[in-house]
Design a protein that fits this description.
- By secondary structure, the protein is α/β, with parallel strands linked by helices.
- The protein is about 40% helix and about 15% strand.
- The chain contains 11 helices and 10 strands.
- The chain has a 5-stranded parallel beta sheet with strand order 3-2-4-1-5, with helices on both faces. Strands 6-7-10-8-9 form a 5-stranded mixed beta sheet.
- The protein starts with 11 loop residues before the first strand and ends with a helix.
- The protein binds S-adenosylmethionine (SAM).
- S-adenosylmethionine binds next to helix 5, strand 7, strand 8 and strand 10.
């Protein structure tokens, strides 16, 4: 207990990621920073004090200030003034990584604009944890945050990201997840794969995987409780018509070799490489 490295930190703002469930999911460096910072600021001062207590980080006479982006200018100015006076400020949101569907953005900007150090002790976030478990591609993803509550606005927001070429990640409440998935099945198609990840790193951690239709039925049969991330597979690459492929090849052959033109078009349309190469070859012959 209390066995953390304490040192005089360089003046600046230290964003600290905290657990999203299991209390021991916090890095040693995060604890060192919490043990060393001159000032601690938190979205929720009570959960911060509990976290410090669990890990035996002694608070001493250091203040724990409440800060939320919407709590306004005044606290922000106070924190910037602490840093300007040569102090280090550690900031954590209630859970996970600050700024990720959590406060911190305005503070980050204010401190950077005043010319001070802004740095981070990275750690858990429900986005990455859910992506790790969902069984969906992770090479590209788009975090869409919380969707609007009202149905029309929610469907509009879903449509706005329908063409994103990556896995879609949403934060959702257990009350709305059924309606959200029903809308998703209509907007993205019932066969699209998805996953519902809940209570990650906690006792009742669970990941349901399947088509959006399967997930809608699963939620109806056993409504989930707790904290939830919904993930949806990217839109399938649109199958191009032979005319579209030919037109694209003609265009590409103006500047590229048969091999390069067919590779480019196959990549763009996701078509069968050898077939496209044969078409390109024929087009080239016709041109000669
Ligand atoms: N800053 C946090 C992060 O880095 O993930 C997110 C904070 S946001 C206010 C809270 C939402 O994140 C929850 O409503 C839920 O959608 C998601 N979330 C947080 N912890 C989670 C967990 N343990 N399991 C599943 N989802 C979680």
């Amino acid at each position: 207990m209390g066995n953390h490295k304490t040192e005089k930190l360089q003046p600046g703002l230290y964003f600290v990621a905290t657990p999203i469930g299991s209390a021991r999911d916090i890095t040693l460096r995060a604890l060192d920073i919490l043990a060393s910072a001159d000032v601690i600021a938190a979205e929720d001062t009570r959960s911060m004090k509990r976290l410090l207590e669990i890990h035996g980080v002694l608070l001493g006479d250091r203040p724990v200030l409440s800060y939320h982006d919407h709590s306004g200018e005044k606290t922000r100015a106070k924190l910037v003034a602490h840093i300007a006076a040569g102090r280090s400020v550690a900031y954590a949101s209630e859970a996970g990584t600050p700024l990720i569907a959590d406060p911190g953005y305005h503070l980050s900007r204010a401190v950077a604009e005043a010319g001070h150090l802004v740095t981070s002790a990275p750690g858990p976030s429900a986005i990455i944890t859910a992506l790790t478990l969902a069984g969906l591609p992770t090479d590209a993803f788009f975090f869409a945050g919380f969707l609007p509550n009202a149905r029309n606005a929610r469907r509009k927001a879903m449509q706005a990201v329908a063409a994103v070429p990556g896995t879609l990640v949403f934060y959702e409440s257990p009350k709305r997840v059924g309606a959200m998935l029903a809308d998703a099945a209509e907007v993205y198609g019932p066969e699209r794969s998805g996953a519902v990840a809940r209570e990650l790193t906690k006792k009742f951690e669970e990941v349901r995987r399947g088509s959006l239709t399967d997930l809608v039925s699963s939620i109806q049969e056993a409504p989930p409780k707790g904290e939830i991330v919904v993930l949806i597979e990217r839109a399938p690459v649109k199958e191009a018509s032979p005319d579209e492929i030919e037109a694209a090849l003609r265009e590409a052959l103006k500047t590229l070799s048969v091999r390069d033109a067919s590779a480019e078009v196959a990549e763009a349309f996701g078509g069968h490489k050898r077939n496209i190469y044969q078409i390109a070859l024929q087009l080239k012959k016709d041109q000669e």
